[in-house]
UniProtKB/TrEMBL annotation, chain A:
Pfam families: Ribosomal_L32p (PF01783). Keywords: Mitochondrion, Ribonucleoprotein, Ribosomal protein, Transit peptide. It comes from Gryllus longicercus. Coiled coil: none annotated. Residues 175-190 have a biased composition (Polar residues). Component of the mitochondrial large ribosomal subunit (mt-LSU). The mitochondrial ribosome (mitoribosome) is a large ribonucleoprotein complex responsible for the synthesis of proteins inside mitochondria. The keyword Transferase does not apply. This is Large ribosomal subunit protein bL32m.
From TrEMBL, chain B:
GO terms for biological process: translation. It comes from Gryllus longicercus. This is Large ribosomal subunit protein bL17m. One of its GO terms (cellular component) is mitochondrial large ribosomal subunit. Keywords: Ribonucleoprotein, Ribosomal protein. Pfam families: Ribosomal_L17. Belongs to the bacterial ribosomal protein bL17 family. Residues 181-223 are annotated as: Disordered. Gene3D superfamilies: Ribosomal protein L17.
Amino acid sequence: MAATLVRCLRDTLKIIDWAVISVLGRPFPPSDPCLAVAHYETAPEKTYSLDNVFDSAFLWAVPKHRTTIEKRLKRKFGSPDYGMKIYLPKTNLLECNTCGHHHEAGVLCSHCYEKVIAETKEMQEKIQENLGLSPVEQDVVVLYDNERQKEPEEFWQGKRIVEMKKERPPWFSKNLMQRSTQSPASSNDVKPTELA
Amino acid sequence: MNQADVSKLISKLRINVAPRHRNLKNPDGPEGRLLKLRKTVTGLIKHERIELNYNRADEARGYAERLISEAIRYGDCHRTTMELADFWLLEKQLVHKLFKVLVPRFREYPISYTRLLKAPDSPGIAFKRAVLELRGNPYPPLTVDSTRNRALLHNVLLDEAAKAYRAQKVTGVTSEILEKIEREHPSSPAVETQESEVTKSPNISEKSGVLQEKSSEPSYEKT
């Protein structure tokens, strides 16, 4: 009984030894005596000489060819199609015949525009106040102070009148094509003018 | 081989229409672009003058012109046209305005129904601005109208042409009357007196310096 016990123990220890060797790659404790040595790497000595400079990757990014004059000029000055890099004078500036301010050709004069848009916004607010969501079936006639009295009441019957509680601005002439207050011409004949 | 005549399918729009629409940027994609354009067209019909960015204004202009031209061509009893108006005009009181106010206003127009003007730049705003308006709106005009100034060259020439036309009409009428009298009462003394009166009536053509010929055929007729 004791012999079998000893044999079992010995087998177990062999299995453990085998496991340690398979994991570590060497028996534990080490079979032969050895010394543990503390080891550190010293930094390599850098010698800065011209020969070493060309060994490293210092000069990999380098132009291979001379940039052509076209590319150079394009980089320096830009292009009309892809964005100019230099400033050019604007030769398309005109004077407004009405107010004298300058504006770009093809664009409205800013001075006159501000005036007209401010008046337009006032008129639009007033119209929307009166209109609401009812179906719109008539042209809107916008009247300023003291203009309603100039025509008899029958003239205004059946028209959508919006009264602005202010004087007519001097630059907004009444003699414009307001078809809601005038009937269109009924004949095709050319009529004589005041000068003719 | 036999190409169908597609030139009469829609009314010719009197504006420049690009071959393809702009891809207006919108978080909802193409559907969002159409919704934004519907709002723009609704705003234009409602207010008759709106200020917005140039690109959207140009796009909306095309749709607005097409809508008005269809309304003029077919009227309000046409189902497809009414559906079109219902789609484009988000506020339904404006459908009434389109057929009852704008169609009678624009029916005889030989030119476009809208006007697209470039607004001045403001500092800090990168996009070009524009004003889109319907012609015949009640607001003060943004551009100077030089069609009525009788001193300008185009009006001077038109006035002279009108005078020549009237003079020619007058001579035509009097010669008709003379022929009629001759037929009814041949070789009567009244004929000679009326002939002398005819030479006096077209005084206008002799006095004006613009007309060089004193012959019966005015110069404009020959061109």
